[in-house]
Amino acid sequence: MQKANENYCNMYPTRILSKTGEECELMRFHPQKITKERALFYGENSLIMQQLAVSGYQNQFDLIYFDGPFNSGRLFSMPIHELETEMINSWNELKTIQQFTSPNLYITEYRKRIELAYSLLKRTGVFVLQTSQKEGHYLKILLDEIFGRANFLGEMIWKMRDDDLTINEPYSLNHESLFFYSKTKLYKKPELNFQSIWTDVGYYESFGDNSSLLGSKKPEKLIERIIEISTEEGALIGDFYCGSGTLPFVAEKMSRRWIASDHSRNAVQLTKKRLEELGVHIEIGHLVDDFDVNLLHNGEYTKTSVVPFSLYEFNALRETVHNQPIRIHAYDFTSDIDSVTNHPHTFHYIVPVIGAEGISGDETTTISRPILKFDNGSWSLDVPDVFLWILYNIKHVDHNEEGEFIYSWDHLRSEVQRIQALVGQNWINSADRDEVSDVFGHVYQKSLVLAV
């Protein structure tokens, strides 16, 4: 058990972008080439925006749209209907709780990302932030500070539902706000005029059969209007909280170029799937780090960056240690590490401590990554510690009627045991030619030898 890396608990990147960008040299995109038309990334958006800035995209975006976290305290879990449970990344869950209970942390984190968006915008560019009334007034002050009060273009009110979402009797909510800012006075004003209250662009929509991935999506007409107000054909748009992918989906149809990302694997996979409906087949990119020998101590390689441990880093590690067994600890892993077999190294996720006292933001532990195997003509997953693997993939916290977070260790243990009985040994949910997905949505790449 170790002290938690504060950089992850508070989502502070371990490699901050300096004015000259030197500190990003160890980080790169995979695949390295970003197409001029479109790119979709999985990962922490502050790091992705940093790397874009040092990869030729500073002052290049015509529009950047943030539909980021509203700090509502809502835990964005994914329902798994077959297991009658909800899946969540434990670090994302902890981050949500920390920011909801410490709003200054939420503002600090948002400031960092808005400043990065500012650096990526053209001098003629537009920034749009969508939010709710809980934090909207604080974010407006923050936006005035970063963009300048004179560059505030307007606030648009979107009526996002007909019925009222009760927040606090007798006060209810059925709208969200969109703050529009230009980067400079060089902003090109469109020959359009819209009233400030939008009741004609639709409401949140359900995914129907795809509801196991994400609960809802923005109406296309809303995104169409944002793009129409702010850009012309051929413009470059950034969406670094892309969620279900409505913006890249609509941008593609409106002949705009786009770069999008999300920290949820399920969200990025859903975005990819929606784009395929338009005949757009795209490889999901991510950040990779160079191998750092300074992280290697006493048979362990402990990676403290939130950039996933990848095959690129793994190959350099093997060249250094050869057949010496190494325990590799990381916050996340890319699926390509599973494609290499017959090595003595083991992979372990760094996770917050979860136990009778709750979810710890101060200490970490590790759990083993399942091992993909091919036996008797079929693929299977060897899960070293079934209880822990289930525990760290399901939601741990609920809300009571007063909106407070509640936690029950006894209930969690019962849930794990129930799910364990349902799963048995059937961990694999789906498989294609190259990859296998488990019941929690984790992806594993098949062996290079067997995949040929």
TrEMBL record:
Biological process according to GO: DNA restriction-modification system; methylation
Annotated keywords: Methyltransferase, Restriction system, S-adenosyl-L-methionine, Transferase
UniProt keyword annotation of Transferase present: yes
Domain DNA methylase N-4/N-6: 62-273
Pfam family, one: N6_N4_Mtase
Organism superkingdom: Bacteria
GO molecular function, one term: N-methyltransferase activity
Keyword Aminoacyl-tRNA synthetase: no
Protein name: Site-specific DNA-methyltransferase
